[in-house]
Amino acid sequence: MVPYDENGFLGGLIQEWIETHRKSYGPVFVLAQELNRECHRFLDGRRVDPKSKLQVTTSVLFARMVELYQAIVIVIDRGMVTPGRIIFRVFLEAFFHFSAIHRDSEYLNEYLNQFHVQRKTMVNRIRNSTSPHLEELRRPIDINLVAEIRQTLDEKGVRKVSIEEVARKADLHDIYVTVYEVLSRAVHSSASDLESHLDYNTEKETIQGFRYGPSSEETARVVCLAGLAMVEALEQMFSNFGEDRRELCSKLKSSFQGLLREQTDHGAV
User: What's the distance, CA 144 to chain centroid?
Assistant: First the structure.
């Protein structure tokens, strides 16, 4: 019997699967909850210096990462492999920016100035569109606005920075060309990623059906790898605010690494 009914992932039979899943991967979810609490303890009542671009920007990025990490745990808890990969990819992108800001002293301003690049891109797309549905948006765009945006970009010396460049600045390019690249296939619904939904008989070389439903194949890997990145960010945030919590973060890292090794030894990863 399939582990879901007409409610799919939203209710019904899936609840029984979730309960069994939580028991099977209890240590993984318990550790994820512990990390989540530590991150919220850090955020709770934190006084950010509004004059410090570093504190303001990294605090907001960190809060975004905490929210994304919770989303990863929630969807993986239900066995939703593809959404888990997609959110993990978004999480990694935030982590690239976060790490690049701390490793490259010039990237903070580059990161903030990307707003002007994004503004130019959006204005040009609307301006060059011939769709009648965008007429109301095209009307306010005149040559003066376009010139103003270009002048801002020229004065600030702003250029578009690709996510691959960001990964290099963060010293995480190896993750970009491996994990991030694979996860991108899920984001774009590539043919190679959709193949995982096919039930293919290699002996007969025939498609017997399609796969849909909960799976635990990514549970330990995604939750623990994202957890390791989240701990790195937490340790850096403590440092940004003059707090030494290396012992706490070292313990969390060791625990996530141990769970990854354990799951790999048992062939679950």
Answer: 37
Residues 6+ apart with CB under 8 A from 7: 13, 14
The Cα-based distances of 4 to 21, 24, 54, 79, 140 in angstroms read 14, 18, 47, 11, 50
Enter the tokens of residue 267: 């062939």
pLDDT in tens, the chain (269 residues): 678 899 999 999 999 999 999 999 999 999 999 999 999 999 997 889 999 999 999 999 999 999 999 999 999 999 999 999 999 999 999 999 999 999 999 999 999 988 888 888 888 888 888 898 888 888 888 777 878 888 888 878 888 899 999 999 999 999 999 999 999 988 877 766 666 666 666 666 666 666 778 999 999 999 999 999 999 999 999 999 999 999 999 999 999 999 998 876 554 43
* Confidence (pTM): 0.87
CB count in 10 Å sphere of residue 92: 24
d(CA 18, CA 100): 37
Q: Which amino acid is residue 153, in one-letter code?
A: L
SS3 6: coil
Please name the residue ranges forming H helices in the chain.
14-24, 26-43, 53-77, 81-103, 107-128, 135-138, 143-156, 163-169, 173-175, 181-187, 191-194, 219-240, 246-265
CA distance 67 to 87: 10
